[in-house]
Amino acid sequence: xxxxxxxxxxxxxxxxxxxxxxxxxxxxxxxxxxxxxxxxxxxxxxxxxxxxxxxxxxxxxxxxxxxxxxxxxxxxxxxxxxxxxxxxxxxxxxxxxxxxxxxxxxxxxxxxxxxxxxxxxxxxxxxxxxxxxxxxxxxxxxxxxxxxxxxxxxxxxxxxxxxxxxxxxxxxxxxxxxxxxxxxxxxxxxxxxxxxxxxxxxxxxxxxxxxxxxxxxxxxxxxxxxxxxxxxxxxxxxxxxxxxxxxxxxxxxxxxxxxxxxxxxxxxxxxxxxxxxxxxxxxxxxxxxxxxxxxxxxxxxxxxxxxxxxxxxxxxxxxxxxxxxxxxxxxxxxxxxxxxxxxxxxxxxxxxxxxxxxxxxxxxxxxxxxxxxxxxxxxxxxxxxxxxxxxxxxxxxxxxxxxxxxxxxxxxxxxxxxxxxxxxxxxxxxxxxxxxxxxxxxxxxxxxxxxxxxxxxxxxxxxxxxxxxxxxxxxxxxxxxxxxxxxxxxxxxxxxxxxxxxxxxxxxxxxxxxxxxxxxxxxxxxxxx
Length: 529
Prior knowledge:
The protein is 36% helix and 20% strand. The protein has 529 residues and is an alpha/beta fold. The strands form four sheets. The protein has a six-stranded antiparallel barrel with strand order 11-12-16-15-14-17. Strand 14 and strand 15 form a beta hairpin. It starts with a strand and ends with a strand. The mean pLDDT is 97.
């Protein structure tokens, strides 16, 4: 039998790896059988750890050591049923010469899809050739035919006919002119992205190197999470309580308790309010146009999560914060676009969207979401996209009054902190993803509709994922489930509401024009201009 080596990557956190292992074991069993039925032996490149109770690669050094034992020309499968840190395996995959197949389960509860797309985007950025597949059971025709194609040829060719590169000459005069004007304004003043430590959770694909970034008019202010923590300690209780009072008046419901280890407490919320004030003041002092906070590693051991802060920053309608001397309201009447998990690709996207949407008189509230999961409902395939941080209340049914704040799961956040969650309101959105390929900045973009599912269906889906986080139900225009998965270059996708479909098309055209003028390669997905 032909031998194929299998590797997988996990989290840095032992608690997460132990919880996710049963789902990973189930995926590996299904894959082993599918390959055996095709006449191949799937060989685990490293053993299950009896002490840790999981079989994930859990550090970069461990990954390097594992890859040192794998024949360089052997066919290799990377399989994941959980969120994983790409940098654990990327060094080994960079130097591997044999054909590579990346694989994930199809599950809401176990976010293998999120981990898969992060790795895929990172491999694209690194210039590593690979093929990719996904399945609920690896018994369906799509998956089995894909496996056979890869075994026989070393590659899988997906249908990517929904993707076309922008021909700027095809843009109509008005949107083209506005995009060119906005690009010139951005280049004239230039953009500062405030980066509170980059490389969150091993997301290599979320880092844009300075050269292509600077060429597009964006520059990094390299900030430290330690500075954010130190600044939080200077924020008065009065300033922090003013933020909470504003949110209470807006009707945001905080689901609080008294057990700080498992419940959201008022003290945790007050610390998040301090972080909100501190982040705005630091951003103002450095002249930042957008900021990104690491979100998990580092700060999680010192303070509650940044989720609530991120969602507030991405909304022009947010608690006012004055400068240290009290003379100015910071970023008055505007969002301070926040890129969750220091995803610099989403930061570039958020700034461009902010400029375009304001110029067109649209609500510039933006967010990114994880491409978490989805399934069919009626005649449509309906995605469930969600993210812990960065989602503004204006994206939810009822705004602040229709939103809630739950404690982040203790497995990830020992010091708690509240989320900002709601159900995505119906409407037309422009979705997009900035990514790096061949050393240059690219963007995929298309249209989608956020739909309102029946209450029972919404609750059923929410229980399949992370109920503490917001969810939006998304139907992508002109892009099927498998086409989206085959093309998407990241675990994240950005969205912004844009009124009617005609308004959304106009906003997409202006954004495409602005991006092209900034030297960003534009790819249209499922739509034409």
